[in-house]
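Feature request, filed as a ticket because there's no other form

It would be nice if the structure record came with a short human-readable summary line next to the tokens. Right now we just get the raw output. Example of a typical job, pasted below so the devs can see what we mean:
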Amino acid sequence: MSSLETRLLAAHAAGDTLAQVALYTEAADTAATQGAAGFFLTQAYIYALDLGHNDTAVLRTRLADMGRENRA
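Raw output as currently delivered:
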């Protein structure tokens, strides 16, 4: 199990939504495929929305650039 996966599982177990945003973003940034990056970025975005996180708009823009979110 990778360090990132271990940290993600720990963040989920602890209910640490702030860490989940950061870790899913990191996972998206290091994903091996576009599909995996989109999945991880979507997870980061969902948790960011839940928190009202400062990076919500940035994550949405990244998803739109990938064709996974409307710009409207």
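Something like this underneath would help us a lot:
Residues 7 and 23 are 8 Å apart (CA to CA).
The mean pLDDT is 95.
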